[in-house]
Amino acid sequence: MKSTKFYFSNCVKSFFIFTLIIFLFSCEKDGGHEAVSVDIDIWLIVKDSKGNDLLNPNNPNAINIDNIKIIHEVNGEQVVYYDEFMDYPKGVKVLEREGLYYLSFFVNTDVNSEKPVTYVQWNESDIDKFSCEILRTESEYGHSSDWIGGSSTYINKVWLNDELVWTTSQGERVIELIK
Question: How far is the C-alpha of 70 from the C-alpha of 66, rounded, in Å?
Answer without folding.
Answer: 11
